[in-house]
Structures are given as C-alpha cells and as structure tokens.
Amino acid sequence: MKSINLKKNQFIQFHQKISFKFDGVKYFGYKGDTIASALLRNNINLVGRSFKYHRPRGIYTCGIEEPNALVQIISEYSEPNTRATIKKIYEGMEIESQNRWPSLENDFGSINNLFSPIFTAGFYYKTFMGPHKKFWKNLYEPLIRRAAGLGKPPKDFKGISNHIHHNVDITIIGGGLNGLLAAKSFINSNYDVLLIDFEEQLGGIINNSNKLSSIDNKEPKDWLKETIQEIEDSKNIKILKNTLVTTYNYINHLIAIEDRFVGSKPIEGKVNSTLHKIRTGHTILCNGHIERFLSFQNNDLPGIMLSSSFEKYMCRYGLAPSKEPVIFSNNSNSNSLVYGLIKAGLKPKAYIDSRSGEEIEPNLFDLIRKNDVPLYTNSQIKGAFGNKKIEKILVEDSSGALNEIKCDCLCLSGGINPDVHLFTQSKGLLDWDEKDLTYKPSKPFQPTITLGSASGQFNFDNLNSDINEKLKTFKVKKLDVKLELNTNTKYNIEKLWEVSPQKKSLWAKSFIDLQNDVTTKDIRQAITEGFDRIEHLKRYTTNSMGTDQGKISSINALGIVSDLLDKKVNEVGTTIYRPPYAPLSFSAIAGRNCYEFYDPERKSPIHSWHIKNGAIFEDVGQWKRPWYFQINKDESMHDAVQRESKNVRENAGILDGSTLGKIEIKGEDALEFMNLIYTNSFTKMKQGSARYALMLGEDGMVKDDGIICKISDQHFIATTTTGGAATVLGCMEEYAQTEWPNLKVFMNSITEQYATFNISGPKTREIMKKAFPNINFSNEEFPFMTFQFHEFNGIPIRILRASFTGELGYEIYIPSNSAPKIWDNIQSVGKEFGLAPYGTEAMHLLRAEKGYIIVGQDTDGSITPIDLGLSWMIGKSKKDFLGKRSLARPDTIREDRKQLVGIIPSNKADKLEEGQHIILDKEIKSPVPMLGHITSCYYSSTLGHDFALAIIKNGRSMIGTKAYASTSSMGTTGVDIVKPVFYDENNKRLVS
Amino acid sequence: MKKKYSIFSLAKNALSGHKDWPKMWRSPEPREFYDVIIIGGGGHGLGTAYYLAKEHGLKNIAVIEKGWLGGGNTGRNTTIIRSNYLWDDSAHLYEHSLKLWENLSSELNYNVMFSQRGVMNLAHNEHDIKEIKRRVSANNLNGIDSFWLSKEEIQKKVPIMNTDNLRYPVLGASYQPRGGVARHDAIAWGFAMRADEMGVDIIQNCEAHQIRTKNGTIEGVETSKGFLRANKIGVVASGHTGVLAESAGIRLPLQSKPLQALVSEPIKPIIDTVVMSSAVHAYVSQSDKGELVIGAGTDNYNSFTQRGGFNIIEDTIRAMVELYPVFGKMKMLRQWGGIVDICPDASPIISKCDIEGLFFNCGWGTGGFKATPGSANVFAHTIAKNEPHQINSAFNLDRFASGRLVDEHGAAAVAH
Amino acid sequence: MLIINCPYCGPRDQSEFSNGGEAHVKRPDGSKEIGDREWGEYVFIRANPKGLFYERWVHTHGCRKWFNCVRDTSTDEILVTYKLDEKKPNLNNFKSVVKTPSGEPEVGSGNFTVEK
Amino acid sequence: MTEVIRSDGVEIKKKVIQQIILRGSGDSKFNNHINKSLKLLPPSDNLRIISNDNYTLAKMSFDQWNLIFEKEIENKKLNKILADLNKSPLILATNISDSQVFFEIQGKNSFDILNKLTHFDFREKSFKKSTAAQTLLARVDCSIFNLDLKLLLSCNRSFADYLEDRLIDAVNY
C-alpha cells in the first residue's frame, strides 16, 4: 500500500511532526492524526490478528465502526481494545498490536487457520467432551481461554472521571449538516438546546466527503465556520464536542461520554473523561449513516477498506492510503470517491460496479471516460489474494470472463445504513426499505425525531422541507438553504450481499463478521442445523457479537438469511440493539462515586473523641461505630472486649448510642397509632415511663425492636436499631398515610438532633450524681424504665433509666452540638469510679449474658415473638396490630417451631463457634438433620467459660437436655441446653 | 435417529463442507391433542419435556414458546451455578441440580461447557461474616462442599482483587469449589435436541393466550396457533406464568422485576473463579470468550420491558472499579436486562394447584439458571406422578396460606 | 430512569422514589375473622399484570409522601399519577397499546425492533 | 460560619442555622395561629418560601413547614417561640437545630457545580427564586432553599463531612 499526503487540509498540522512507537518501532505522524491515519502514512496496514483464525487484519474503516484495528495503548496503563481509527496520537505514544504471539508478522495462532475447516460455527458444542469430563477443566478450557480474548489485561488504574447532569428541552445528536441546520433554527429561541458531536470539529460530511460543492453559494468550509460562530454566540445552545452518546434510555434519558484528552497524553490528577447524563424533552437524531461492506473470498485481507472511509482519510486527514485503489461497489454512494481521487490528481486503478451500464450515473460515466479509468459494469469480485496484504483481485466481468487486476488497495461499498442503534435503544421500531435495501426508523416510542441520513433520507433534494416539517411543533424559523452537489445523484443501489468464490475449497472464506471470524458458510451451516431465527443464528455463530457489534455487517447477514430462508427481511427481523453504542469506560461510569467517595461515613457527634481515644471502628450500615477501644497499640480485640465488659460488671462503662434511630410520634391519635404499629399495649402506660417494644411485619415475624418513651398520649419517642432506623420510619409513614389516614399523627426523625450516651455499671449512680448534681437519682425518685427532662447549664437534656447490659444504667439524650462538652465532663467525673468507654462487641457480650436478643443477629426474618419467649410483649387485649393475624396461622402456632435457648459447653473448657449448628449426632455423616444454629456466642469472664444463644427446634422443651454443636472442622462439641439467661436472672441489679 | 457429536463427527462433516449436519429439532405444526403441554421454551421447560420423555416414558408432549427457544431468562443470565443455599429444602434442590449439571454434557452428548471453577461470596462487614459462617456450616452438614476463606486465601485465588483500601473492606468469603459457570444457550439447545429426538413437538412463535378449564380440571390452552387440548399442562414461563395463571383463575404471589447484567470487552484471562458480593451487589466471572460477565441488582419496580435504570449499572460498576483496580481501564461492551419473577420468600414454586392437571414452575428470582436441570427433573416427576417429588415438596403453592415459608432472601446475593 | 410526577413536588427523577407495589389493596380489619388463605393472599399476593397497573410510589428522598400511579408494565409508560384520596382514574381514555393477550404492546416494549 | 471553598464563580460556606419543624393540617386556623406568633403567614402552595428579616418559612409538603433562623438567636428565645407554637394543639413544633448542617452557596457557577452532584433541574423555569426542594445530592438527602442572592443547602449532620468533601471535589474537578 503506497500512501500519499494531501497537504491542502485544514485539520492536519503538517508542520507539527509527532513520533510514536508501534510494536516497538518508531514512526512519525502529524498533529491531528489518529493512530490509523498515522500508520497508513507509514504504509503500515497489518495491525492485528483475527479472534479465532488469527488471520492478518488491516485498517478497514475510518471511524467508530472499526472491527479490526484494535490496539493496546501501552503508554496509558496498557488500555486494551482501543480503536486505532478514533484514538488521536501524541508525542511519545506507545502502541502494541493485540492477540498475536510471538509477533504480528508471524503469529503461532494462525495454525487455527490451518484447522479452520473443523473450527466452524458452534464446533465447541460438539467436541471437547471426551475422554473424561476432567479434560474440559484442566486442558480444553484453559487452552480456549488463552487463545480467546483480544487485548492483554490493562494495568491497575484509579482514574478521575466526573459526571455532569444536564436538563434541556432539545438534544441534537450529531453536528453534521442536518444537526447544524436544526441547531440554527433554534438560535435565540426559548428552548434550552444541547448540540453533541463525536468529533473534535463539527461538520460531519462537510469535512469528511466531497459530496457538497457549495452551501448558500458559499464554500462549505466558510459556511461551516459562519454557522458554528452563529450557534456559539446563541445564548440558549450549548455545544459538547469529542462527546459520544452511548445510551438512550426510557423517558428521554441520554448517557454520553466526553474524552477530555484528545490528541494529548492524559495528565495524572486531571479529569480524563466526563460522563454526561442528560434529561431532555426531545431528542433529534442526526448521527448520519454507516457504510456496509460486501462478502467475497478473503474480503478480510489488509489493504481492503470501505470506500467512504478512504474518502474520509483524504478529506479529513489529508492522506490517500493508496495512489490507485480499485473500487468495487453496488451503489451510487462511492461516486464521490472517484470525484475526490481525480480532484486530488489521482485516479482509481479500476472501477467495478455490479450494476448494469445503464444504471451507472451519467456524470460518473463521463468522469471515468474522461480519465480513462478501466470500467467493469455488471461485474463482481470473485476473490482477493495476497500474503498478509492484498496483491491482486479476480473480477468476473459482464461476459463471465475472469480478469486479474494487481492492486495494493480495494475500496468496497455494499450500500449505506442509517445509524439506527440509538433509535432502537429508544424503543422505536424499524422498517425495511425495499428500494434502498436497509432498515430505516419508522415508529418512534418517545419524543424522538430523526433527520438526514440517520432517518434514511439519502438524497439532499428535500432537505429543507424535511427539517421544517419535523420541527413544525417547535414553531421555530423556517429553513431555506441552497445546496449544490459535486455528484448530484439520486441514491441508487442493486441487491448484492455476497459473491460466491471462484473455486470450491474447504479453506475458502468469505467473511460476514470480521472481528469474530464468522463466514457466510457458518450462516448456511447454522440454518441447516435449524438455528433459523435471527437471535439463534447470532448466538450460534457469534455473528455481530464483537466490540463493533456488527456495525458494518449485521444488515448483510440479514440479507443473506432472508435469501436462504426465502423470507422478506422484515420477517427475519433484527437482533436487539443494546446500549452502549460503543464500549463505555468503566471509570467514566463510576465517576467520582467510588474510592474515597464510594459511600458516606456517617459519624456520631463525638466521633473525633473516639478516634483520639483508640477506638477501632466497625461498619454498621453507613455508620462508623466504635467496635472496641485499645488502651495500647498491641491490645488484642479479645483482651480489650474482656477488659471493657469486666469493667461494666465491676465499675461502670459508657457507650456512644447516638447511631440508634430516634423517632418522635406526635398528634391527637398518637396512642392509637402506636398500639397499631407495635405488639405491646401502651394504653395503661404511665406518662414519663418507658417500655421495651417489638415491631412485626405483616407476616408476624420480628422486624425491629426498641424502647418506647411515653411523654403523653399525644407524644411518644421510639428508639430503633441502627440498621432499622430508616425502615421503621418508612413503615410508620406508609401505614399512617395509606392504611390509617384518618388518624391525626405525625412522625419526625430526631436521630441526629440528640446524641445518646448509655452509661451502666454498679457505680453508675455515684457518677451520675457527680455529673448532674441537681438531679435526684435515688431508686424511688428515678425508678427503672422511667425518664425525666432536665436542664444542665441551660441545655435541655432527657435521661432515661434503662439498661441493655443488665447493670444499673441510664441513657442520656443531649442536643448534638452540646454533646462533646457533657461527654468530656462525664469522663472526667467518672475517672475516679473506673468509668471507661466500651464498644459494640462488649455490648453484644454483656446483653447476651442477660439473654437480650439483637434483631438481625438472633432473628433472621423467620422468628416470631413467641419463638423468642417474648409473648408477654404481645398486648393480648389489643384488637389489631401489625402482624397480629399472622401469629395465629397454622405454621406460626406449631409447637415444634425454632425457639430461643441458651447453650453452654458440657466441658467448660471447650470452645463454641458462632453460626455452627446444634445436632443430636456425635459423629457427623452428612447430611445430618439440624435442630438450629448458634446465633451469638462469646467467652464470658463473669461465667469463666464460653456461652451462646441459639434458635433450635422445640428449644424450650429441650432445656435441661444435652446435644452437640458442630465445629468448623466438621467435629462436634458436647453441649448443655439451658435457659437463655446467664446473669442476674431476676434482674435484681436492674431495679435496685 | 440419535445424533452423535464428537471430534470425529466434526472432521467427517468438515470434508463435505458441513452441509449435511442434521437439524437440531423439527419445527412441527401443533397437533390437536397432547398428553402434556409445557408452556415456556426456556431451559426449565425444555428440560421438563426431556425428563418426561426420558424418565417417565411419556411420548405425546409439546413445548410451546411464544418467542424463540432460550429467548427469555435462559439467554439473559450471568450463567452462575452453585448450591450453597441456607435452608435445607433449598440446599437439597440446588444440590440435586448441581449433581445433574456435573454430567449433563455427556448425558446430552452436547458440550454445555460446565466449568467448575468455584464460586466465592464476599463478606464486607461483621453482619456478612455471621451470615456466611452460618450458611457454610449448614452447607457442610447438608453434604455440600463449602469453605470459609480468609482474606489471604481469597487474595491467592483472585490476585486482581483489592481487599483492603475499600470503603467496606473484604473480611473473608464462603467458597464452593464445585460451583462455576456454564454456556447458557447450550443447555436449552441440548435439551431441545434430545427431547425432539424422543418425539417431543417443539413449537416456537406459539403464544399461549388463555388456559381453559372445565369444572376444576384442565381442558387445554388457547394459543396463537389455535386451541390445543391436553390432559396436563405445566406452566414454566417465568414472569408470564402469573399472567397465564390469572387466566385460569389462580393468583400467584409473583412480582416480575428487571434484573440487569453487562459484559466487558474480551481480554485475555484475568479471573479464574466466580466472585459474588451481596453488600455491594455486584458479581463477576470471565466467559471463555474473554468477556467479564457482571451481574447487577434489580430495579425496585415491576416491569416486563427487559430494561432497567442506568443507576443500577452505575452502582455495580463503581463497586467493581474499587474491588478490582484492573477494571479501571476496561470498557462495558453490552448491557441488557431480564425479568426475574420473585416470590415473597425468594424461593420458587414447583407445585400442583387446585385445578386438576395444572402445574406451575416459577418464582425462581435470580436463582433460575443454576436450578435448570434439577427444577426440570423434579417438575417432570410432579407432572408425571401428579405428586411432588420429595425434593420439591416444600415449594408448594399453599405455603403462603400456612406460613411455612423457605425464606432465602439472604442467599440470593442480590438485594431485592 | 423514569420521570415520575409527584402530585406535591412535580416531575422528578425516579431515583428520588421508592416503589410500593400494587395500589388500592385494603388491609383487612385485624379484629374481624378472616381465613388463613384470605389473610395469606393479603400479605403475599399482589397483582403482577403485564399491561396497565395501579401501583404506589413514595417520594422517599423528597416530600416523603405516598401517591398512586397508573403505569403500563409492558412499556414502563406512566399514564397518570394521583393522590391517595383521589378516585381511581378510569382507563378507557387511555388507548390500550396491548396487542396480544399476554400483553405484548405494539411499540415500546423494546423486546423487538421490527414491527410484527 | 466557616469557609469551605472559594473558586472562580463559586463560594461555599458552612453554617449552623437554627431550625424548627412545624407539622399540622395547614388549614386557615393553623396558618392564622402561626401568623399570630411569628408575624409571618405560611406560604399556601407547596415548596414556596416566605421570609421576613428574622425568619424564613418554607412549606416542604402539605403537612410540614421548616422555620429557619438565618439570624442566630439565643436558645432561650428559641425555646420560647417553640413553647408558644406548641401551645395550640393544631401545631406540633420540634426543634431540630442540632440535627442539620447548612451550606451557603453563592456565585454564577453555583448551578454548574451542583449539576455534577445531582440530577435536579436548577433551571429558572423549574426552580424559581424563593422556592425550596428536597432531593438527592451525591446520594445524600438534602433540602435546597433558592433564596434571592444565595442558595441554602442542608443535610443531616452525620453526612456533613461527606457532603462537604463532595462539594469541594465538584469545584476542583
């Protein structure tokens, strides 16, 4: 392939040379070149090896539809599968070809081509099963996996991409002729408009082809410059360049990705890509068309490319990949390439057209005649041949004779398809156009408008009327632009999908999907085997499942299938176009919502104190809660937890309970509402008292628990578990609004208004007396499960006497901003009494000694209050509450349900493990019937041995008997089943 | 005539240019009467017909499918297979299926590419650890291979995983070595081919409209190709089962929600096991073609459009790029959705109902693919014997009245 | 992502809302006698039509108010949203797009790309 | 009042602002009672803000109003207003001054910054001056008050550090 530079070009800076490396060799390109155009300048066309047969592959297109030229960008964390036809080069760029070993020139993988007659469609379903199924895991699959896949894995990469949301009335996708005209009509209207184009410069076919000779009697370049200026000056139009719309979701929600480093190396620490998330009232699709190829023997040889791509390299990148390409076409679209070549002082080696002589456009005929270009009409290419590049082609002319033409480049055109990918993503329907032989948008489902070739209008004559008609609803100014064309032709095409090879050979391949190495023979084989539905055919042959998703070939496959099945193409249908339009970077999707911003770290009002005092934190939902406190760096968790819990039993400990949910329930019917939500009855409850309460789901299972404080019949405060805060509030609001709207009741979350300090232990009373001198903490004045409002240094506080550890305890509720001061005060006052902070682990241990449950750990959504032995909490007299009816269902009143029990090892020195199961067999020969499992288990320094809570079948009636607990090493430990309480059974310490 | 597939049959056919391969299945017009009609041509439906013919000797069977075989959830899932479920009933059902998977390729003589590369469920907080340790213990006692892996052991199996500087660090995982992935289309085509060989009529583009009953027993089904009479009808049409049940006056506790998944571009091997993470609800494996197959969460509303919101994809990917830094420079190739029909206790329904001769197999939620052969096997038994098999007795329809549920919410590893 | 018109705050992105399943399902009065099956159906069974569906949404990250909505589950098209205390809108002024009894719509399901 | 970040076209400050939630039916009796004690008639339609020189009152939904004290007053005076409001059984007032943190955002690029964190439509035609909104900002529940010269943004205090970091990040990237 001998390329030639065309220096009269406004996009390439020929004065600015750029060096880059491809497979270790240094080459030169110019500023504005893509990798593909730079390689073509250096006459390199072999850029990769195909997926299955490892055949040599070249640059086939000049855009995003590229199936072959996928390269690895070593200088950018070795990013795989990058399209050479899109990525712009920069100084010092390092690029490697993919999927070949040891080198591109001689790839060991091409041995597959030798065995290719066996490796046809779906061969892997019919073999790799013998001689034993172990072969698949240890031999066949590893081999297949190593051969498959294109690029090598990239390096670890922590990118910076951000998201920008847009809310606009109109989004115009595509800044070509139609996009610019549409945008012009919205200038200074009261519509917010977003114009998006994938290229660095707006203009589309104005820049990429020779079709237009003048617009409104001006040079296309000048008209373009003026129009862009006009649009940029308009206040209501925003332009996004280098931005590709990848996804069109339901209710006009678009996703687009912008590359922020086009033509330069991404700078660390700078945003390298932006994901635009656009909510638009209307979408106007003018993203143009894509040319399709033709199938014939060896249509994959390097040096073969699409004719409009060759033309785009000439117009957009100032480069003719070859001085004298052969052109093979079945339609009028490739006329403008002939015009372009001749204008640049070159000419095609031959022009082959499958159409008959009369159908050839007159001005093309004159152009070819005047420049004596060999013309073959009614002719087809039977095959292309050459070693790792095209060297000659075999043409069967109208008389049937075979002509051999030597050439270094072949331009193909099988017709053009409107780019309907985004239109079908919007759930619009397509319709086959028998005249233009392609699918065109027909019935939109959302407010979607298609213009220009994206809507299937391949001629320019009714451009104005089409746009004015479709934009009528917006009442914008009418368009009347005058166009003159270089090749003023009406689009004309003759049906041609495939040319059969000259001689029958097992190795002759005519490709229908270049990237996945799918041949037309594979399609015929799939249909003979019964995979005649287009979706089956795609999955069986993997046709159009590559990274290009069959952009230049999927319509051809439909044509071939409709011929084989003798069905109209509309009956064959198409496979579903799935987002994204082109592969979308993971880092861009993640945006800033990852790494340090993955999820908020919710902090309690005294979080900084915890950090300063050696707290080790645990994640509880989004909260960070002190798990335990280390008095020095090498104190183990076990020692810390034993120290903390012992201190609560002997002196006093203090826990930060601010993360528990706190909901205020107010209103005239607050009492009736609370009786409906919780199992307990609050009617006879005295004002100023508190009660431990359970909340069930409608299925009767325990969902959450907490302490309810009754200020009055019209005012309650309920606490919830940390994890349950949002769901309990949500459930209350749901039932208040949807089931009992007649009740006058309101709920406010006051979780963050108050910090909560739970202090408990034998010496608590002395500490509280010193910390709050003006309050009387005697048992008579301040009995168990009551609360009082006080003021401390002008701060309104509430103190509730309750305890989760089984010791004398108080919960102090303090407005969050004043919490740190009071916490510090209690710490200093409590020092002399041995007061020390404790974490969640010690709290779990202490509450388990008392047999108190933790919802979510001792319950799993399938446990009722009766199972937990908490039937005393059910207000028997109440006529209704959440889940009441479910408590009377056959399965809920069963006697042998799983019930809460205590477990201690028969031999006190033995260990118990959480999550293990209680069984009756000493030896484990699985499957073993299980009675239930250990929900919580700890070593207790108070008891001097391990102990656990468990939920087991028929639990209560088994108290006093022996059983076994399984161990993680599949052994068993003898256990005694006891009552689920291990400390101060009759609560003397609580109420004294 | 029994089709034989091997390297030798491939070589023989290569010589004649692969022109004379036999058709995988006939596409007959429906006959007027069948002993059993299976509504739903996915993996479960085709498998049921296969086992009815093979193990219960029934001959006059039809499978009717409104679209193309395997076009529903069979063709849309992330192909993960495991049996480490919590409750005994579920564990036995999924283990029964895993055992069938293990020699399905040889039984069908069609390579379903079941790759037992192990399945890992990550724990990201203390609550996860407790739940996973309980499940591992229950699995072992039910005879299912299941281990607890420490962070170091995870690192060895999945070197690309970043376990520590994460918002929710990886604290450990459960691991089932016999779990893995398979080629989803192959099981549908394999069952269809062998069922067809035994005389089962497989009829595509035949949509069931209305189930017809007469005083409490089944009569037949109105379809787009006319009324088909039958003694027994098995409805296994995932989300649409509820719609059809309604036509027979039966209300099923199903809710159909979109579940999304995506694949990356194909690259050389980087991950050799399946990793599931329910806390950040994202799970990943690498297909033999080299694409990373990533499952996301469900949208929280009912829909049959097989599409979901982009926010679900965002939530999964932002967890992935943190858990696997190597994904930072990779790209999403394709994104789609399926319809998962979910029961309130996240367990399936394989059951008779009040109408004689009418059977339902649905409610698989996100666990359908791994259960394909096992579900088909026990459903065939239920239909043939008019009594549930011991394995699926717990998954009856009236468990919702009695309250004896099999609550597998945690095990499905997908927050729904 | 859908746009949902909250009756109190106006049209908002779907990420601000949570779904509440089927609407107009009256909770049986707990105090009256009710059979196990009937109660089981209230707790567990909700409509799951493919087509027009009366459902509930709550503006969780907004005004936190519940409201009802009619949506076509075969295309996700939201026809109307209305307050809890408003009458159930009659649907005959909404042209049904359903073509086949199993609820496959003419256009908008996204399950096929060419008109049948 | 502490400064969070100042860059071209945007300035963000963090403030602790006292706030009271009012719940009630919103009928005329309710409105008149509030008018009597606050000398400020509550707005009638949803998400509207009415303010005088010492209070700002925003109707967040048909049964909830937020009373914001831009000019700080001592707690004693606040508790008196609270008690006065609660006297009538129609009004249920709760002090939530400690539960939220406020960010004040000014400058012509304010909306461009916020568009990086939320889908919310800040255009004039959908978010007029002196209206309020509750939405998600960087996945955190926020209330936004569109006052004439500035924007007030509030979130629960436990999320405040995270939201502050996200605002700074949105200005830097």
Question: How would you portray this structure in words?
Answer:
The complex is a heterotetramer of chains A (992), B (416), C (116) and D (173). With 992 residues, chain A is an alpha+beta fold. Among the domains of chain A are: 1-157, Ubiquitin-like (UB roll), CATH 3.10.20.440; 293-414, FAD/NAD(P)-binding domain; 607-659 and 753-847, Probable tRNA modification gtpase trme, domain 1 (Gyrase A, domain 2, 2-Layer Sandwich), CATH 3.30.1360; 661-749, Alpha-Beta Plaits, CATH 3.30.70; 893-992, Aminomethyltransferase beta-barrel domains (Elongation Factor Tu (Ef-tu), domain 3). Chain A is elongated and about 115 Å long. Chain A is 22% helix and 28% strand. Chain A is built from 27 helices and 52 strands. Chain B has 416 residues and is of the alpha/beta class. In chain B, strands 1, 2, 8, 9, 10, 11, 17 and 18 form an eight-stranded mixed sheet that branches. In chain B, strand 9 and strand 10 form a beta hairpin. In chain B, helix 2 (43-56) runs parallel beside helix 7 (184-197), helix 2 crosses helix 10 (372-385) and helix 3 crosses helix 10. Chain C has 116 residues and is mainly β. In chain C, 8% of the residues lie in helices and 28% in strands. In chain C, the strands form two sheets. A four-stranded antiparallel sheet of chain C has the order 3-4-5-6, with no helix packed on it. A two-stranded antiparallel ribbon of chain C has the order 1-2. Chain D has four helices and eleven strands; from the N terminus they run E-E-E-H-E-E-E-H-E-E-H-E-E-E-H. In chain D, the strands form two sheets. A six-stranded antiparallel sheet of chain D has the order 1-2-8-11-10-9. In chain D, strands 4-5-6-3-7 form a five-stranded antiparallel sheet, with helices on one face. The chains are: A alpha+beta (992), B alpha/beta (416), C mainly beta (116), D alpha+beta (173). Chains in contact: A-B, A-C, A-D, B-C, C-D. The A-C interface holds A 249-251, 253, 279, 424, 427-432, 439, 442-443, 445, 570, 573-574, 576-577, 698-699, 730, 733-734, 737-739, 741, 879-881, 884-886, 889-890 and C 1-3, 13, 18, 20, 27-31, 34, 36, 39-40, 42-44, 56, 58, 60, 64-66, 75-76, 84-85, 107-115.
